[in-house]
Fold these 2 entries.
Entry 1:
Amino acid sequence: MAKIGILTGGGDCPGLNPVIRAVVRKALNEGYEVVGIKNGWKGLIEADTVKLDLSYVSGILPKGGTILGTSRTNPYKKEDGLRKVQENYKKLGLDALIAVGGEDTLGVASKLTKDGIPNIVGVPKTIDNDLSATDYTFGFDTAINTATECIDRLHTTAESHHRIIVVEVMGRHAGWIAIESGIAGGADIILIPELPIDIEEVCMLIKKRHGRGKTFSIVVVAEGAQFKEGTMVLQEQARDEFGHVRLGGIGERLGQEIEKRTGFETRVSVLGHIQRGGTPTAFDRILGTRFGVKAVELVKNKKFGRMAALSGMKIIDVALEEAVKELKTVDMDLYDIAKVFFG
Ligand code: F6P
């Protein structure tokens, strides 16, 4: 019986379990055996696996996170990592591998297709929605719904206390979470990494709003946004195995600056990992399910080196290389719509 391996790598997100469930259900229907590789590429380096059968994936559809665990391990940065991955792939008797991840995990998958493991298929995930070649990644819808609910809650307390509240959201170097949760939550200003922050303009907009009688404002800022002068605020300078710095802190800096320049009392709320946790929305459950079924079809049809993707309302497949070629950043047409409501 042919054997498919599946792993989830990088930051977790809601919708991973629906993918795992769909892969197992579809693969078993097609007569495959399925092996879960634990904790992303780390599990393939260590041959840490679990047999996935019907009972193992039963009841996981509404569960956030990933039952397989995840890590930010890059086998190309580990001593003997590549050799171990190649050896274990053979030792486990895998005929194909489904890699579920963002740009880092899929970047490794793409390289491995040229480094002795050609039978790989990708599934795109990330709350950041920054992968090119797919209109949406699952996890994003849940994240923006959670962030929107938080912005709604912050509205009522900001209004009661006549304060400005700066809300820092995730999204790495793309402003998708900020722009979409900001529009949905009725933010008065939205700041994204794609456009440097002009602090004078931010304060002017707040003063203009307060000038027409409003006594509170909500400012949504993406963690990757930078001030115009280029002073990016980082919590720490250390980089992970994929070369990423850990972002965060821009909200606090911005809040201090706004209070200093406008004289309005300001508070800062960093939403952090709350955006990544919890049960997936119906949209993410369905997208994850569709991607999972598609991934098994790609394996069945030997369309390796491909990734499941969403194009409009349709599930298509694209080259893995395409998916990781460039970052998908915020569409300026959407930003222009958000701007209508600034100030
Ligand atoms: O890529 C998803 C993401 O949540 C980013 O939005 C954020 O910058 C990063 O991961 C946080 O990573 P970690 O969970 O390692 O702190």
Entry 2:
Amino acid sequence: MTQIQTGLLILLLTFLGVVGYNVYLHETTPNEISYTDFVDQVQNDKIKAIHLKGGSVKGEDISKREFCSFIPDVPSILPLLNEKSILITAEKDSENFGGTLKSMLPIFLILGGYLIFSRMQKGDKPGFGKGKSSSFHPIKSTNLTFDDVAGISEARVELIEIVESLKHPDKFSSLGGYIPKGVLLQGPPGTGKTLLAKAIAGEASVPFYSIGGSDFVEMFVGVGASRVRELFTEAKKNSPCIIFIDEIDAIGGKRSGGNASGSSDEREQTLNALLVEMDGFDSNQTVIIIAATNRPDILDPALLRPGRFDRQVTISLPDVKGRRKILEVHAKKIVMARGINLSDVARGIPGFSGAEIANLVNEAALMAVRKNKNAVELSDFEEAKDKISLGLERKNLVIKEKDRRVTAYHEAGHAITAKLLPETDPVTKISIIPRGGALGLTQQVPLDDKYTYSREYLENRIKILMGGRIAEEIVFHHQTTGASNDIVRATEIASRIVCEFGMSTAIGPIAYMHEQDGFLGASTATKPYSEKTAQLIDAEIKKLIDQCYTETMELLTTNNKFLHKLAEALLVNETVDGEEMEIVHHCYINELEIEKNLKNKLKEG
Ligand code: ADP
Ligand code: ZN
């Protein structure tokens, strides 16, 4: 073929690419609605879930119509979204990187076209899946170890077993051990999932194959599935090894059934190929597939079945200790001035992910270089932080100090109520690190599996749920919407006590189907009831709630010094575990003792 012919062909390909691409863009852009419309729909419960990227929002309304819109001020609408219990997923706004990529797609198309074309000239058949030489080359060994990933102590224990099975597959299976096949790392972007997968490969010194979920779904139809097969063939030849699939949600999102667009067909084929490959291992082939996602909620359940990604490891944003450890890892790479306290730096960057911390250290070093310093000083960290935070503020990642305080008292309120009341499950963890839609969490783990609940246990659950809002009221004298889910759950328990468990004396042991209670389900024995009974039921529920409220208010007011102490500990450390909470409780009890003794002495004297 002459050069002119080649040139003409490329031109033609470009033209087709651009035209085709614009048609594609046109088809997939959802209906854009105004912000006012968006708020309207939220208020009228027309929307159940949204995806946020910076101020851009998209999703589907209840009649499955896709929409997109722009929110001028995201923080201001969050309370409403919470109140309506809308499932929010969010991703970092990467300076509209997606948009840039999209606009560059035609260029990629040309390049792709050219590549195929030049392959053809060399005598290869087109299509990546068919060439003789594989397009997958593992990174031989990654050299990274668990020491390069800081603040993951919880995940580490689970992952060591995987390293062991890669290192000694024979020993592992001869002992009857079941070699894990798939591990799903889930967590926000930048929390070190990729790093961790590489560290596993490094620890086990095995080859590491890495591919992005979106790499599978290419513009050439039918390539995704064959790429999967090719990847697995290649990996099996080099077993034991690791296959890492980043952003698995790009191919592993729930299969949509009705949606007949070409790209989703392509995705489904790719996903099916992946499932077939994962199911078809011999026991002597140790290939561990590690996948990462920040959207576990949208994954196809088929991926999570036994024998597939049945190990799930959650990696959350680091707390203050974790941030200090990550800072230490990255600070090793730069020259630091003496006397910098990394704990202080860590405290000043709540909400930062590992990637943002790495970026912070890097920026601080750049600041120092710009000023011709020979070591990085605290002021450089401060400046770098301000620079990054300004960017983050826009992205709504930095939690406002006031919100942190309210959350700390709210969670401390739950935890203290649980701690001080008898017949409750022990508190194992309290945290004010936001995750999902929630600003904080208080975790209680029952000592044993409970099958029956006493009335006291149930009432105390109501009180624990109310403890959050009551603590806010005691300290800030106002109510926030942050507690709305607690209130819903408390009301639910109260109405079950009255209607389902027959524990109210005024009504007696009769199970009634309360009108609002969908949750009772049709299987429960129900009894039709009169208007009068309905009023009685409502009155009983209200009485129960009011009584729980008053008693919890009393409990927390009497113990408000404990409340302040625990909230303070949360504000400093961001997470407090069960043991640490015991220590705070101990300090509080000691102080009470001392006060009492003092008073007695004063009386005597
Ligand atoms: P993810 O895959 O979760 O999006 P990455 O593994 O790509 O995150 O993290 C990006 C970078 O951020 C890493 O290369 C590393 O420099 C830094 N980083 C993230 N988490 C950690 C951590 N826990 N310890 C040390 N560095 C981290
Ligand atoms: Zn709460």
